[in-house]
Amino acid sequence: MNIIRNQNDGSLIIALEGRLDTTTAPELEQEIKNRLDGVTELVMDFARLDYISSAGLRVLLSAQKVMGKQGSMKVIHANEMVMEVFEVTGFADILLRGDDGYDSIHQCLCETRVPHKAAGGSTAVRNGRRS
Questions:
Q1: The sheet that has 122-126: what strands, in order across it?
Q2: Does the pLDDT value for residue 19 go beyond 60?
C-alpha cells in the first residue's frame, strides 16, 4: 500500500493506493496518529484503494472517533468494491455521512477519478519509506 498525504493548515488529505489489510493497516494507523494533532478536517481519498479488510475498517473507525472530537472526517472516491464492504458492514452510515447529515455515498461512487500527484506539501510513503 502507498500512502500519499497532503497537509495544509488544519486540513489533512490521505490518499491510499493498493490494499488496506492486516499487513498494511498498522502503517496507516501510525501515519494517522502522527498527523492528527491540530487537524480539524481529515479527508480519506480512496480513488486508488483496491481492497479494504476488517483491519482497515478498524483504523478508519479509530480515526473517525478522534476526528469526531476535534473536527470532521470524510471518505471520498470509494470504488464499488470498497463501497460494498462499507455497506455490508454498516460503515457506510458511519463514515460516509456528511456534516450536513446527507449521505455522500452517491457522490463517492460518481466523482471522477483524478490521478494523484505528490506535489507542494505532499509526501508519498511507499512500502514504509517516505519519498
A1: 72-76, 41-52, 11-20, 2-8, 122-126, 129-130
A2: yes
106-to-16, 58, 67, 110, 112 alpha-carbon distances in Å: 20, 23, 23, 6, 12
CATH topology of domain 2-114: Transcription Regulator spoIIAA (3.30.750)
Q: Strands 11-20 and 129-130, how do they pair?
A: unpaired
φ, ψ dihedrals at 45, nearest 5° = -100, 115
Provide mean pLDDT across the span 107-127: 41
What's the mean per-residue pLDDT of the chain? 78
The domain ranges of the chain are 2-114
